[in-house]
Design brief:
Helix content is 23%, strand content 30%. Strand 16 and strand 17 form a beta hairpin. The protein contains twelve helices and 32 strands.
């Protein structure tokens, strides 16, 4: 966290900035100062929230081609796995692309109201169509369309005027319409065999140079899908960015570890802290580009849940919108962003310039971000019992208060067997997420052992276990084309294999045990407390992850226990254990 941002945030938190000036501090003045004067990576590292925009010729098709709808991510509609559109046919779309409803200032104002700190937009996706006026290739939005407008000029100017950072997505390896690009035509217009050099030196390198020299200050260049691209090519692109935009970051997907930070898999929000600088890229529905049928919008609460989860794990969240073929942003996506943004502008200290949770994982009721000696408890699931349980905090608490926008009220708390118990009112003060600010005597020190929440119980992901006789793997698949899901199960079980997690129990008694897993046929699982009660049960398996009940375990006294899970019978090598959940029997 850098100097200017630290000073301003500290002033706000200590009360030296009036509440009525909060919008100015966090919405206008501060953002403009940071966008213009921020050091390299500062908006990324401290802003923690950005807008991604996927927009191109594919937006006009909206996942519908020659009378058929294709389900999945719209920007890949050319691909053989989707509609398999020939390059010459796809290129004809440019002649009818006239997005007169595109409103650069409107999109920038949406990003500001959403609480986002910079915008990254597709300058060229895999289809090869440049969404700006490129001199290197006339297959671009000015030379090839009736609109003849450069929206990147408008958007970059609007970002500077509003005080937001600005950056470009650029597909540096794949180009499906230029000869020599990966997955592109094998021969040029004269029938001559094309090489990757033809694409790289005639189009890619010149276009990246254009983006870095003709659109003002850039926050980052977001390269994507390097594939088998040789390191020397990537290095040349990085050198161009460094030369012309020394403050700009280069995305981790540039390849060969030449990027400045790590980009996780599409739509991946980790459940454990991740070291270093990283981002999660996500989208407001299922498709990145506009798809006519896709109405599976993320609610404001879900947006906040995923944003705060990323910040609490130590990262940045970049959330995508997909304008339609006319350039308009779908209203339902915009509405969710605005409503989530209203909450962020009330509680900026939860999101901006904060550090990761020292526990390293989310709580059953929500999540935790940190600023110096202050914890911000974001409570998504308000406890009906009136008690909020926080395990493992060792640092002495000076005070706790329930925030209500610019106001607050004190919260009573007590310590019990290594847990902190907060006494809360019956009703949550916020519809989306309520916030408890906890001031400590010093920096937070915690015992990260998983606490079994007396209200909700706790789900523990299997990759947090100590594993013997089995293996933790990465399991990644598509629900629809391009809609990625990622988990890290324990699998490849062998006889005697087990996964062990340590838990901290505050309230003794019976707890209901459930396992989430996939596999083949019927499987026999054993779950037990080391030195205590054991249960064993047979359940069917499914091709997808489902939660199955196992039985009850008794924890006789408060304290720490080790719980072991084993797969005993059936096709145990196929069993993939995602998580174990322990709920108090009520």
């Amino acid at each position: 966290m850098k100097g200017l941002f630290r000073i301003l945030l500290g002033a706000l938190l200590t009360g030296s900035v009036c509440a009525e000036n909060m919008d100015e501090m966090w919405g206008e003045t501060t953002v403009k100062l940071r966008a213009e004067n921020a050091g390299r990576g500062e908006l990324f590292d401290e802003g923690n929230y950005a807008m991604f925009i996927h927009w191109g010729l594919y937006s006009k098709l909206a996942n519908h081609y020659q009378g058929k709808t294709y389900y999945g991510i719209g920007e890949w509609i050319m691909d053989p796995k989707v509609a398999d559109i020939p390059a010459e046919e796809y290129s004809k779309l440019a002649g009818t692309f006239n997005p007169t409803e595109f409103d650069a200032r409107g999109i920038v104002q949406l990003a500001k109201r959403a609480g986002m700190k910079y915008i990254v937009i597709t300058a060229k996706h895999h289809d090869g169509f440049a969404m700006y006026h490129s001199k290197a290739c006339d297959f671009n939005i000015v030379d090839s369309t009736p609109w003849k407008t450069d929206p990147m000029k408008e958007l970059s100017a609007a970002c500077r005027e509003a005080g937001l950072g600005f950056g470009f997505y650029y597909s540096h390896s794949q180009d499906w319409t230029f000869p020599g690009g990966r997955k592109g035509p094998a021969v040029d217009e004269n029938g001559k065999l094309a090489t990757f050099d033809d694409y790289f030196y005639k189009k890619c390198l010149p276009q990246v140079t254009e983006l870095c020299t003709e659109y003002g200050p850039i926050e980052l260049i977001w390269f994507d899908t390097p594939g088998g691209m040789e390191k020397s090519y990537v290095q040349q692109l990085v050198d161009v960015v460094r030369k012309h935009q020394p403050k700009a970051l280069v995305s981790g997907r540039a390849g060969h570890n030449l990027g400045d930070y790590q980009t996780l898999g599409d739509m991946e929000v980790p459940h454990r802290n991740v070291e270093g600088m990283w981002e999660s890229v996500d989208t407001t529905n299922d498709s990145w580009a506009y798809a006519w049928y896709d109405q599976n919008w993320k609610s404001p609460k879900k947006i906040l849940h995923r944003l705060i989860a990323c910040v609490a794990r130590g990262g940045t969240y970049m959330l995508n919108i997909g304008p339609d073929g006319k350039g308009a942003v779908p209203e339902r996506a915009a509405r969710s962003l605005r409503q989530a943004g209203e909450w962020i502008h009330r509680y900026p200290q939860v999101v901006y310039g904060t550090d990761a949770s020292p526990w390293g994982y989310a709580m059953p009721w929500g999540d935790i971000t940190v600023k110096g000696n202050r914890l911000f408890l974001s409570v998504f699931e308000w406890p009906e019992s009136g008690r909020l349980y926080l395990p493992g905090l060792k640092t002495t608490i000076k005070s706790a208060k329930l925030l209500k926008g610019s106001e607050s009220e004190p919260v009573a708390f007590n310590a019990s067997n290594g847990w902190t118990v907060f006494e809360l009112p019956y009703r949550a003060p916020e519809k989306l997420v309520s916030v408890i600010e906890v001031e400590l005597e010093g920096a937070p020190v915690v015992d990260p052992t998983f606490g079994i929440d007396p209200n909700e119980g706790t789900e523990i992901f299997a990759d947090s276990a100590e594993v013997t006789g089995a293996t933790i793997v990465k399991d990644r698949w598509m629900e629809k084309f391009g809609e990625w899901i990622c988990v890290y199960p324990v699998t490849k079980w062998t006889p005697g294999g087990k996964a062990v997690v340590e838990v901290d129990v505050l309230v003794p008694g019976d707890y209901d045990v459930a396992l989430t897993y996939t596999g083949e046929g019927r499987l026999v699982w054993k779950v037990g407390i080391e030195g205590g009660e054991q249960i064993q049960n047979q359940q069917n398996a499914s091709h997808n992850y489902q939660e199955f009940p196992m039985g009850w375990l008794n924890f006789p006294i408060p304290g720490k226990y080790k719980v072991a899970v084993s797969c005993l019978e059936g096709n145990i090598e196929t069993a993939e254990l995602k998580s174990i959940r322990l709920r108090p029997v009520q």
